Amino acid sequence: MLGAVSRHVAALRPGASRAFSTGPVVGYQTRLSQFYHNTLRDDMMILQYVPPQVRARQEELEEARLKAIKENVGGTPPNPLRKRQQTRPPKPRVAESAAHNTPYVDKVTVHIRCREALQNKHNLLSALMTLQVVTGQRAEVIKAKNDAAPWKLRKGMPIGAKVELTGDRMYEFLDKLVEVVLPRMKEYNGLRMDSGDGMGCFTLGFDNSAIGLFPEMEMVYDMFPMVFGFAVNIKTTAGHNPAGRLLLSGLNLPFVHARKPATESLML
């Protein structure tokens, strides 16, 4: 036994080669992260597959549409008196479905806008501690970039707090939001199908009653003198809204269609 210990100590001396890896320790994967890498990623690759013939036809139609817009065929002629024409940057081309470019959640930003901080900056402490309790990560202060006289706002004044989540903490927060918070909300049906910024990113807004539904806030809710609403911005690598909706719906985030107004029944 002493020989085994001496060999082990000799192996740990400086300059000696080690039999084990000295790389960074890989942390555990959350339930939602395992579900994405083991199940959802492959399913999305299959659902987004487009045959080459159909993709070629879609590209021809898109080129014809862009050419018609450029030549202004059948549209309103440009105004010669308008000096500056507002042009939007072209959307990126949707890549072919493959394992290396399957959309995934890149970053989740949780932020709170605190109007009460304009009167007293110490009111921002509740927002900072709320985000730290809910997300498990230290929040940072958001400061005003410009002046706004109607709101008595000056550049550099604190107006909110935010937390940017990535990796396992991001999946942990999404798991709590989808599995615990949203089912306990009575008046929340889901995101609208026409929501999104066109690049596959979505934003959810909640009032101050939703912050108390997180498991971490239930025991310490009475300790906070002020409770604020919050917004969650989900940034994905989808590139367009349909792929982003497919990804988030696979993560159990609900989407609903806009309801049409009820029509009056015919009187017979």
- Enumerate how many helices there are, as a single number: 7
Estimated radius of gyration: 26 Å
Structural class: alpha+beta
The main sheet comes to:
5 strands, antiparallel
Quick check: average pLDDT? 78
C-alpha end-to-end distance: 99 Å
Secondary-structure element pattern, one letter each: HHHEHEEHEEHEHE
The outline comes out as: globular
Strand percentage, roughly?
5-15%
- Proportion in helices: 25-40%
Oligomer: single chain
Q: Point out poorly predicted stretches.
A: 1-26
* Strand elements, count: 7
Strand arrangement, largest sheet?
2-3-1-6-5
How would you sum up this structure, described in words?
The protein has helices at 2-11, 31-47, 52-71, 124-135, 167-184, 215-218, 241-250; strands spanning 105-113, 140-143, 158-165, 191-192, 202-206, 230-236, 255-256. By secondary structure, the protein is an alpha+beta fold. The protein starts with a helix and ends in a 12-residue tail after the last strand. The chain is globular. A 5-stranded antiparallel sheet has the order 2-3-1-6-5. One of its GO terms (molecular function) is structural constituent of ribosome. It comes from Coemansia spiralis. Residues 69-98 are annotated as: Disordered.
Question: What is the structure about, briefly put?
Answer:
This protein has seven helices and seven strands.
Features:
two-stranded parallel ribbon, globular, alpha+beta, 268 residues, disordered N terminus, 34% helix, 7 helices, five-stranded antiparallel sheet
